[in-house]
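Reviewers of the previous submission asked for a worked example of the structure-prediction workflow described in the proposal, so we include one complete record here. The input consisted solely of the amino acid sequence. No template or homolog information was supplied to the procedure at any stage.
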Amino acid sequence: MTRDLLRDLYATATAALLVVAAALVGTAIERDHGTLHVGWPPLYADWGPHVGPGTPAAIVVAVGVVAYGPRVAARLPWRALLGAAWVTAMAWTWSLALIDGWQRGIATRLTTKYEYLQVIDRFQDIPATLRDFTGHILLHSPDHWPPHVAGHPPAATVTFVLLDRVGLGGGGWAGAFCITVGASACVAVLVAVRALADEALARRAAPFLVMAPAAVWMGTSADGYFAAVAAWTIALLALAVTRHRPRLTGLASGLLFGLTCYLSYGLTLFALIAGAVLLLGPRRTRPLPYALAGVAVVPVVFTLAGFNWWEAYRLLVERYYQGAGGIRPYGYWVWANLACTVLIVGPATVAGLRRTGGALLKTPRRLTARSSPTAPLRGRTPDRHGGSVRVGPALRRRLLPWADMPGASAELRLAVLVATAFAALLIADLSGMSKAETERIWLPFAMWLLASCAFLPRPRTWLAAQATLALLLNHLLLTGW
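From that input alone, the workflow returned the following structure tokens.
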């Protein structure tokens, strides 16, 4: 057994201990004080072993991806791989959701008293409702919004209102929409990894993105839809900074980032990941004017309609502490949230994150060894595809950005992207605005952590661990989302 593999196993064992500790400590806190407001700490779930119509399909998908996923991902033409990834991710998510049956697993998930579909009738006049939106956020306000409506900017609710207007009303259509769109998040991550790092790493990551334990909550949680919008924001920006129609893709990326900020307040943290993309791209500034123009569109539309994002966020913070957020102990959730993250990304991602850290720590030493500060820069330097590009005299007289220096490999670029997503997640954790339920709230960040699995050897073994965890979670627990 190699030293790296042993370190991977130590990392996954430590993560497992974190989950066990969160379960034991959380159970004790809930039993003695009742302040966690979750049924099976650290998850918003209840113990309830069961099987359902999705069980056989989930097992078949899992076996198929474990047995053939790495080989198929390596051999399919790129565009065919993207299509296959989307279809397989949908199959995996549908089958997991149907373990709970059609009604509980899909049709009624978005119709509970907490959810968006409860207020569809209150949006008969959308502009008028948006003007009055902030007046119903606080608990003591008249006809206050349900928790999820109050806790998000109105683009989330308006999405389901528009689905209803085009004849796709009800929980079944809303669930199908979230699954279909949410499953495309894995495709967006693949596109970004290929553009910023290389195709080989994207292909290695593909089976892990397709068959993530996160699919347990991607099923019919609106956060799966949010994850896809945020993921395509980054994917299109990655294309823009790597010379793929920078005007069009930059504008589209900006439009989606504006929408992302009006789907969830916390997803403004994706600006950090976008910053990493700009750092890694060879054309960092060219798409910026188009991206910034796109970013302005959605905020301008909602502002002109009468919705004040900043005022709504201020009231949301107050509403958060009026409810369970004011009762749930920060001292527990600040680390138990990370245990939730372990369960949504799986043991393979834990090992992948360990290797991501290793890649980041090793590279500075390589750069120091290969690029002495007193040595002149050579006339040619490797590009991101392993070829070379000529460096002009003026550029040689300046210090090149570290991402373009010798040793800045595709692995390093992927490591930077993953590490930035992890940093954004940690900021969300420390903020105290995500105490519990992060198994769904952090789905947008989790998709980018899964890309670290491209660093792993023996993919079938790790895929089997991922599939086993997802199947156990969905069959042993009745999840709240």
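DSSP finds 22 helices and four strands in the chain. We consider this example representative of the routine output the project will generate in years two and three.
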